[in-house]
Amino acid sequence: MIEVKDIRFTYPTGVEALKGVSLSIKDGEFVAIMGQNGAGKTTLVKNFNGLLKPATGEVLVDEVSTRHVSVAKLARTVGFVFQNPDHQLFSETVEEEIAFALRNFGFDQATVEKRVTWALNLLDLTDYRKTSPFMLSGGERKRVALASVLAWDPKVVILDEPTIGQDHRQKEKLRQFIVQLNEQGKTVVIVTHDVEFVAECNPRVVLMKDGKIIADGEAKRILTNTTLALEASIVPPQIAQIFHGLTFLGLPSDVIDVSEAKKILVEYFQEHRR
Amino acid sequence: MSVVETKGLTYTYPSAGKPSLRDVSLAVEKGEFAILTGPSGCGKTTLCRCFNGLIPHFYSGELKGNLRVADLNVNEHTIGEMARRVGLVFQNPENQLFALSVEKDVAFGLENLGMPRGQMLERVDWALDMTGIEDLRERAPHELSGGQQQRVAIASVLAMQPEIIVFDEPTSFLDPLGAQKIFEVISELNRKLGITVILVEHRLDLAARYANHVIIMDEGRIALDGEPREIFNSEQAWLLGVGIPKSVRLWRLLEENGIDLKGIPISSDEATQRLKEVLWR
User: Fold this and answer.
1) Using CB atoms, which residue from A169, A172, A235 is nearest to B176?
2) Which among A57, A203, A259, B96 is least surrounded, fewest beta carbons within 10 Å?
3) What is the DSSP secondary structure assignment for residue A16, as one 8-state letter?
4) What is the pTM of this model?
């Protein structure tokens, strides 16, 4: 779905944010891009939808180079939900906000209406149809931003730091929603610092540092590697930390999920105590 | 001795239809490390604004009930007077930093107090040292990483030598390691200097281990108030959907399966220790 071939990118300020990155994301995959502040995560995903074009190397979306397609056209395939919803929202009502891009893509009025209703319903925003996005809370504005992108049904959805500013319950809802989207076949890419959130979603994890990818693999393998974690300025999830101190008992060290942890410990206990 | 005490505090923002704080009564003792948490919109930030007098002096609105902070009746003292006793550190340090060098930023509040130059420099040195950023003294705050900026913001507040520092989600924009370092700095100020800490936080996995008092708010009211282990064990905390640390979740699952860890672990280190004791024979 997305092929990144040895790309480099330098901002006009002279900062080289990507120093040779290659990555392949398959149709229907769920990928979390993690790493230190300033590692190049957001720069990388902005190359996925053509908002930024690489200086060298190339990005193929659905087998077409982003150099040869306009951002507007690419957006149809790759929807981008910004970290700060205020960078994205501008309409007078929630309904208008969601309809805006649909009209730009040339959908007819009947389809626009149908899609708007569908997206409002999907994100639990129906009551706010006629409300100004700026009257809503931060968490609700994030949902509006997400609804406006999902409305045009892009094949790939990119979410930049979706959990910032969300409380525990909203995060849980977001997690269920993202997992569901992915199960329905969408390719989902999230950029995040939230280790516990990733541990619960269990996606493929791509770890970045200083403009390069330093690891790529299953969440439970990457997040439990203390050397990698330190290098990428993340802290392993709490369950991984607990199990890290128990390996001398012969227990596995690659555990990030609380239910799996329980299962392993209960089995161990039953075997060794009686 | 309580350094923060509210009784029946009820507050409504100007033009808001309903109160943001409803009958809030709580006490934070001197030297405590208190975590204030609860769902978005529950009134946490509004309550923090009361602690340093932004409410009622800056945000007008209607405030009822008693509010004493650092032995002062907040209603009778200006924001300037309160600022010397109660520091406030925000979520985004960029909103707080503005000077051309770290040193000037940290000195700013002291200059406003009219402190003599010699004493001021000593105070700045001390604040930079306590937050571990002496080497950043000459740097421009806007060039620093988010974690470094947040330490500058803490140093600027610390320089005023307040009795209480309120931190409003100070790590939301930081990577996990940066966040952990900030919590360690905060904990050190609490332990070494005896500064009372009130930390507004959702990420309890990282922060719970430092606290000895947890307050959970919901819809403008105090829902739970007590010792961390007691709170995390209460049914109501689970129902409110606050971020119960994974170590506590694991403890409960094991408990249900007949494995007794003898006490609730609120950090991964504690959980590992207890598990070792139970499993290793």
Assistant:
1) A235
2) A259
3) E
4) 0.87
